[in-house]
Write a structure and sequence with these properties.
four-stranded antiparallel sheet; mainly beta; signal; Host-pathogen_enzymatic-act; Methylamine Dehydrogenase, Chain H; 1 helix; 28 strands
Length: about 350
Amino acid sequence: MKMKISALALLMTVALSGCTAQQTSATKPAAEPQKTTAAAQPANVQKRDLADGLYEMALSPKGDALYVASSEGFKDVQGGVVYKLDPRTLKTIGASHTDLKNFALALSDDGQTLYVTNSLDGGVSAINTADGKVKNRILFPERNDEGFPYGARQILLHNNTLYVGAVADPAIIWVVDAKTLKLKTRIKNTGKWMTGLHYSEKTDRLYAANGGGEILVINPRTNRVEHRWKPLGDKPALLLNIAEDSETGRLFVTDNSKAKTTLVLNIQTGEVIKQLDIGDSLSVKFNAKRNEIYVSRRDGGKVLSLDGTSYAVKQSWDLPPNPNSLELSADGQTLFVTVKQKFNKDHSTSGPDSVVRIDLNK
């Protein structure tokens, strides 16, 4: 019998990926396709079909492993996988098969622990990267009016503390000890649907985006909300992901579904410096090494490279149907993208999602 999923869980998945999904209780195993897509790509683009339900990525500190979170299928598939890929070839060099579905990732500074949000179950798992085993887990107790867990969306690691945003109304941010996975406290009064999380060394503040069009400025020493910015005023906005140019003090904030834009904000005041007219935007990265901004346009099927000063589009990569998450190498010369397939009416897809490697030097 299929497990009924709440509207909130659907909205959580929309906020994370720009698409809807359904969880089931059947246990049909998911196989990993091993072939690389044969579609023609530019010389600097390498694409590999990997698995259903790909979401966020994380690179190891040494740059020798790319971790990719997968929920696997939402139709007749229980659990998920975290894939470990060679960042140069995109070949699988490891895999952690998990009993829960995986979405967002954070990696410890020493590279020994990978933290993954189990969004549909309202929890976080800690995976030992040496053997791929789940070594610890926390499931949060909060439930919505229908009895379903709050969706654990984004995860941020700072100063041995995990900050986990809850997609709920009202939303909260769980504050968790990264070593023990014990809940330390909750940051409340964070608006509707907590989405993006970012820490700035420049200001020593957390920045949190929500579905009500707000950016919250939080002091991580006191876990108190110090400022609430609403950059688009009363206009509908579902702000998602955040990136920073620390040299110029700018925040880049995306909106995929309401305002369909990318905002450039003053990191000190929240003032709108620029509203980029590039269409819908989901994931965003700033590359200080090349002074470039990268934005995935999920609906538009493209990833854009913008000049970090003029905001002019320098390059556009066609990655249909739905480019999703972005990850940037430490040297700033390689960009990774997860590309999702469209969902059918029965919540299946026509093929596996993909991982793309873009050599920015070519």
